[in-house]
Design goal:
single chain; 314 residues; 6-stranded mixed beta sheet; 20 strands; globular
Length: 314
């Protein structure tokens, strides 16, 4: 748990402040057969104190989920590589949108024409099933803020609506270059960093497909239950993400676990191929590093289907 006190005073006459309290449970379980180890992790958190454990987070259940993931992956065979439909679970699965698309919607890259989405306001850039939102106002959410680090009140920004690019995440400095007003998106780790446009709670909004229908729609594919880390080129949107916990889908049913899978593609391509979106939004917590340091962010989505994506494996 940590507490951050913020004071903002500027030459425009603004004198304001904020107090931010963060609590997070970091849980890592290791399963071993004597020859190799597999690790399962669950890291829930919120913008609140230890009341986090009064009903929002159950430490025992968190540990069981991490241990189950580790034990399942220990005996799983390696995933075969190929092009296939992929179902990505809700929650931390949203890290793909965060990394491969979200950073490209920040003014820090858009203002200089370095983003794959620069100059595309009002254009259709995603499947019509995709609505993506960055909302810093969700009560007690891990990535929420009352004011950003320039003193602008937090906002709910609809970035993409039914596939159409509506706005970017804008700070004052880059907003002047772009001719756009700030969106409450200026963030920094501390006074030791210069503010720039950053995400808060960024997620793909719920859709109208049931999880059962999404799984049943696939004859052969991959179910990515838990996503891991990856690498992204913010200029091109090219990404490579590890799948921490994966399962094969056969004939519309989730079958045997597989390990060593990765998802390879580009942000602009993957959001055009999201053709089914579930109804239940789930959020996952993380720390995002950028030029203004490391800040708490939520990523999220319901269960989604990507019609076709390159799966790396063996």
């Amino acid at each position: 748990s940590r507490e951050q006190h913020v004071l903002i005073a500027n030459s425009e006459g603004l004198y304001t402040g904020d107090t931010r309290v963060y609590t997070r449970l970091l849980c890592s379980a290791v399963a071993s057969d004597g020859r190799e180890n597999q690790t399962g992790t669950r890291n829930p958190g919120a913008m609140m104190g230890f009341e986090l454990f009064d009903g929002r987070v159950d430490p025992a259940q968190t540990g069981r989920e991490a241990a189950q993931a580790a034990a399942t992956m220990l005996t799983a065979p390696y995933c075969a590589a190929g092009e296939m439909p992929v179902v990505i679970a809700g929650g931390f699965g949203g890290v793909i949108f965060h990394e491969a698309c979200g950073h490209s919607l920040e003014a820090s890259s858009v203002a200089y024409g370095l983003s794959q989405f620069a100059g595309k306001l009002g254009q259709k850039i995603a499947n019509e099933k995709v609505t993506a939102i960055d909302d810093g106002t969700i009560p007690n959410a891990w990535g929420s803020i009352n004011i950003d680090d320039e003193g602008t009140p937090a906002r709910r920004n609809v970035l993409i609506e039914h596939g159409v690019l509506k706005t970017y995440m804008v700070d004052k400095f880059n907003g002047r270059r772009m001719g756009m007003a700030p969106t409450g998106s200026a963030r920094r780790q501390s006074y030791q960093f210069t503010t720039t446009s950053r995400m808060t709670n960024t997620y793909i909004a719920p859709g109208e497909d049931s999880n059962e229908d999404i799984i049943a729609s696939i004859d052969y594919g991959l179910y990515a239950k838990d996503m891991g880390g990856g690498s992204v080129n913010p200029v091109t949107g090219e990404f490579n993400f590890a799948v921490n916990e994966g399962y094969l889908i056969r004939n519309g049913k989730i079958c045997e676990p597989v390990r060593g899978a990765s998802l390879v593609g580009t942000g602009a391509e993957v959001i055009q191929k999201i053709d089914m979106v579930g109804r239940q939004l789930d959020l996952g917590q993380g720390m995002c590093g950028s030029s203004s340091g490391s800040v708490p962010v939520n990523v999220g989505q319901p269960m989604i289907r990507v019609s076709s994506i390159t799966v790396g494996g063996r």
